[in-house]
Amino acid sequence: MRQILKKYTWVWIVPLCLAASPSLAANNEQANSRTKLEPVVVSATLNEQKLSQAPASIEVISQAQIQEMGADTVAQALEEAVGLVLNTESGRAMRPSIRGTGSQHTLVLVDGRRLAPGYRGMTDINQIPTIMIERIEVVRGPSSALFGSDALGGVVNIITKQAPREKIKAEADIKAGTNTGSGGQTFLPQGLIGAGLGKFRFLASGSFKNRNGWEHDNEPPDDGDEVKQQYGAGKGVIDFSENHSVSFGGSYNNFERIGQRDIQNTLAERDATDKISDVFLRYDGKFTKNTNLMLQAYHSEYETDVDLNPAIKSPFLLLNEKYKRTQYEGRFNAKLNEMLNLTLGAESRQDTRGSDNLSTEYDTDNHAGFGQLDMLFFDRLNLVAGVRLDDHSEFGSEWSPKMAASFIINPNLRLKASYGHGFRAPTSYELYVTAYKRRGKDIYLPNKDLEPETTDSYEIGLQSNLDVAEGLDLELTWFRNDIDDLIEAMPLASKAKGKSKVKRYQYSNIAEATTSGLELLGNLRLPFNFTFGAGMTCLDTENKDTGEQLPNQPRFKGNLNATWKLKDLGLKTRLSFNWYSGQEDGLGNSLDDYSVVNAWVGKDLCQSFMLYAGMKNIFDTDREEYNIAPAYVYLGVRWEY
């Protein structure tokens, strides 16, 4: 370990040696003023609210936090989020799981829009770069009353940057890094540009990633894929007047993974390419001071193509997939008086899964309408009541009500509570597709008799802002989810296959399952520009059929982080510690606890440039069952205009 740190000491020395150079004084003052402003969120009620007033458990991950974490993807940006764990699915795809409900129960949105399902019905957040992101809003708890199916556990809403109105906006970020062991060399240039040209404004971004594969344990197959990615996104806005605008845009992602897989005891070279695209058209109008209308249409497509060398013949091996999603939606908001705010909405969505070597084409339609009433009494009591009706072409109708309350006890303390009902319809993958996971070591069988999952969820919490030193923010929340017909991949008898046993699972409805726990989120600001943050989750889960803990859900997740700004030197540092404990694999086997330490340092070079460096997984934690990347160091430069 000492040799590793000694070898990469340059990562820390280079920025420190530049401490005498001019700092980004003007930019720092603007950034500091922004951090003192309370974040505004939209994911809790679909209307803009201050974070402290939102009647839900929400964590906002800002653009500054994303940069200081050294996060290249949404998956990396969510590593420290409270109540959320990242599950590795199908090799190296990443999905978020909120409050122990599982990776299929968290709805991932981009500016409120659903993406087409990815490989095997999953949205891989490890493929979404961060260059275009303004903030990420994580809503913990069921949100089906607003968003319908798939929001049973919560919502991750990725909010992208806005096109500038009058000035030119430009950013560039170039990063290079490598694993401290063999392989993993990475080169990642990213950039964006935008401008306001009278009534028209635009913003466009691009990201190009090249990462070599790596071999960590000197045993085949290799441990890390070679990755090549080209990503582009953009949006344009036409402001017809101060109150009426039309926006449009889209994105394209070409993501290729090349690496070895052990499939049916055959070592094969796997080349998998994902192509993801989406387009949208949106109208926003304000007809009176107190009424707003939003109309939107969008279309998203996902296609994957897998090549194996040598070719492996198997009726269960999925080599290509195609998904399409089209949605039309509208939302009307009216402030009826100083106390009442009404939101009405409707949407129609069509999902199409193209035919492949395993199944025929599969189409579903979903039509929904919802309403929400936001009531404020005496400037202290906020009540929100909402209900949504979804009509699914395969599984019929489902009502999803939700009620939430927030009461200001005193200027520094707020009490909140909520109840919500959520549901999720089975995916075509769970119903009809047999496939391999974990590099071909596990077989997952479908079940065409699956029923939709439903949940009743409760939470109560305290949120405070105390005048300790320069400020202490604390949030403590208790939650419980009672889930009926939970869909889980249940283990079947293992069969010998060559030298090893192939594990077989089948998707089944568990009669009942529960998840419950406590969440703590804290932030302490001290003199001399020190900031300490903490996030902890204690989680209990139970499969009521077996009495066992639900798989891949740690009983404890903790995060501690510290940030220190040296304004006179234009220097900023961040250190974080993440700990996971008490996880099981679904077969009654306990998995090892593990921890990861990350560090980052940034130095302003002049008015527009910053040099930064960092190290992830400093102590090179190695846990094969979690697919943790080895120790990684990087150096980059960032330019803003």
Describe this protein's structure.
It comes from Dethiosulfatarculus sandiegensis. Keywords: Cell outer membrane, Membrane, Receptor, Signal, TonB box, Transmembrane, Transmembrane beta strand, Transport. It is a multi-pass membrane protein. This is TonB-denpendent receptor. InterPro entries: Beta-barrel_TonB, Beta-barrel_TonB_sf, Plug_dom, Plug_dom_sf, TonB-dep_rcpt-like. The chain has about 650 residues and is mainly beta. The protein has a single domain (about 1-640), classed as TonB-dependent receptor, beta-barrel domain (Maltoporin, Chain A, Beta Barrel). It has 7 helices and 34 strands. The strands form 4 sheets. The protein has a 22-stranded antiparallel barrel. The radius of gyration is 24 Å and the shape is globular. The two termini are about 40 Å apart. Mean pLDDT is about 85; it is low at about 1-35.
Annotate the secondary structure layout.
Layout: H1 2-7, H2 10-17, H3 25-36, E1 40-41, E2 49-50, E3 57-62, H4 63-68, H5 74-77, E4 84-89, E5 93-98, E6 106-110, E7 113-114, E8 133-140, H6 144-147, E9 154-160, E10 169-179, E11 186-197, E12 200-211, E13 226-239, E14 244-263, E15 266-288, E16 291-309, E17 320-335, E18 340-353, E19 362-377, E20 381-392, E21 396-410, E22 413-424, H7 428-432, E23 435-437, E24 442-445, E25 453-466, E26 472-491, E27 495-497, E28 500-526, E29 530-543, E30 556-566, E31 571-581, E32 594-604, E33 609-616, E34 632-640
Parallel strand pairs: 6-9, 24-28
Antiparallel strand pairs: 1-2, 3-8, 4-5, 6-7, 8-9, 10-11, 10-34, 11-12, 12-13, 13-14, 14-15, 15-16, 16-17, 17-18, 18-19, 19-20, 20-21, 21-22, 22-25, 23-24, 25-26, 26-28, 27-28, 28-29, 29-30, 30-31, 31-32, 32-33, 33-34
